[in-house]
Amino acid sequence: MFSIDVIALMELDVVIVGAGMAGASLAAQLAGECRVLILETERQAGYHSTGRSAALFSEIYGNACIRALTRASRSFLFAPPPEFSETPLVRARETVYFARHDQRDLLSGFRSDTETIELSEGDVRQRLPIFRPGYLGGAALDPGSADIDVDALHQGFLRQARTRGAMIQTASEVSRLERVSSLWRVDTANGMFTAPVVVNAAGAWGDALATSAGVRPIGLQPLRRTALLIDPPAGIPIESWPAAVAVDGSFYFKPDAGALLLSPADEQPSPACDAQPEEIDVAIAVDRFERATDQRVSRVRHRWAGLRVFSADRSPIVGFDRSVKGFFWLVGQGGYGIQTAEAIGRLAAALILGKEIPDDIKGEGVDETKLSALRFEYTSQ
User: Do 161 and 209 have their domain in common?
Assistant: First the structure.
């Protein structure tokens, strides 16, 4: 590791603001090509959205753009290089999308838009015996989904970035960011750095960082998502259970380290902050779960909340700003930033380095123009 004094005197090619999954995956790709520094405000990389994600890999999750990026990330997640991680990055877990009797039309529309397998009530109850008899009006199965080990993936990218020469500074909030001649000047409590390219991977703080740099904000919307852990049914092994997602997006649950992870799938608008769960959202999650199953939630083991940050069209923003040279947007991954990180990292690196988009990413139908910041009419400053 370089000392802070040495880093502060170095000229860099790219400064990445944000050491979450987005910044880490990009740094891992860039580090072998140029001099890279990641700056992170918190003392721990991935403290906010990355560290609070209960990620599930699914190729039918999200809009067409998200699905294409997910497909482009699949081969890496399921078969990473041996040196990337000592543990597997994914573990197979089917996903059941379920509907009440009054939601059959919604389920039919979902099935027509996705490659899923129809399940009867008996099929579902074989996999998930806690559903209340008569509750289910239909279900669809995604057999190719999987749990993602978020920490193993994130740490793998950070380790890869360091091995290739990238530098990482935590507890380094950006106090000043301005374009001076042909370079960006980035000031922190730990030093001043210059680089021709600065990457905005600041998540919920993306618009605020842009504004501080004299760049027009793009209209990011952080949405709070609540999650909790509850006790599993007594005497019933749950590890092989699929994830269960209400087809109307009202709640979901899945096994998690011997407990059941439950969420009301809420999307409450929030300022950029250290998000905390609201009691009402916890209560809503419990109520919806108890109405669907024959289980009663006697206690909540743990509760937390995170921010999922969306653009206006709910696709990520990846590309250079339209008006300020050298300012690169890498934000708006929403709830899909974990499963798409590898492809987005390679795509962003290619754009920064002026290279062709990798063929496998293009082959999955990823169109960089649909991710570019240029697709938006910017909000007024």
Answer: yes
15 contacts 191 by C-beta, under 8 angstroms: no
Taking only Cα atoms into account, the Rg of the chain, rounded to an integer number of angstroms, comes to 21
Regarding pTM above 0.70, the answer is yes
Output the pLDDT for position 43. 87
- Give me the DSSP letters along 162-181: HHTT-EEESS--EEEEEEET
Could you report the per-residue pLDDT of 273-298, keeping only the tens digit for each? 999 999 999 999 999 999 999 999 99
Residue 377: per-residue pLDDT: 63
User: Which three-class secondary structure state does DSSP give residue 36?
Assistant: strand
Q: Which residues contact 3 (CB under 8 A, 6 or more apart)?
A: none
Examine the domain organization and report whether 298 and 348 are in the same domain: no
Domain count, the chain: 2
Q: Are residues 318 and 361 in the same domain?
A: yes
Residue 177 has pLDDT above 60, yes or no: yes
Say if residue 265 is in the same domain as residue 306: yes
* Structural domain span for residue 246: 95-143+221-310
Q: Are residues 159 and 203 in the same domain?
A: yes
Q: Average the pLDDT over 194-223 and give the result.
A: 97
Specify the pairing of strand 259-263 against strand 252-256: antiparallel
Burial class (CB in 10 A: 0-12, 13-18, 19+), 144: middle
DSSP 231: P
**CA distances (Å), 161 to each of 29, 44, 158, 254, in order?**
7, 16, 5, 32
Reading the block at residue 298, the tokens are 């006697």
User: Helix, strand, coil: what percent of the chain each, to 5?
Assistant: 30, 30, 40
* Helices and strands of the chain, counted as H and E runs: 10, 21
Report pLDDT for 50.
67
Residue 161: its H or E element:
helix 150-163
CATH number, position 214: 3.50.50.60
pLDDT exceeds 60 at position 5? no
Is 297 strand, coil or helix? coil
Return d(Cα 79, Cα 271) in angstroms, integer.
Answer: 37
- pLDDT of 380 strictly over 60: no
CB 141 within 8 A of CB 110: no
88 located within any domain: no
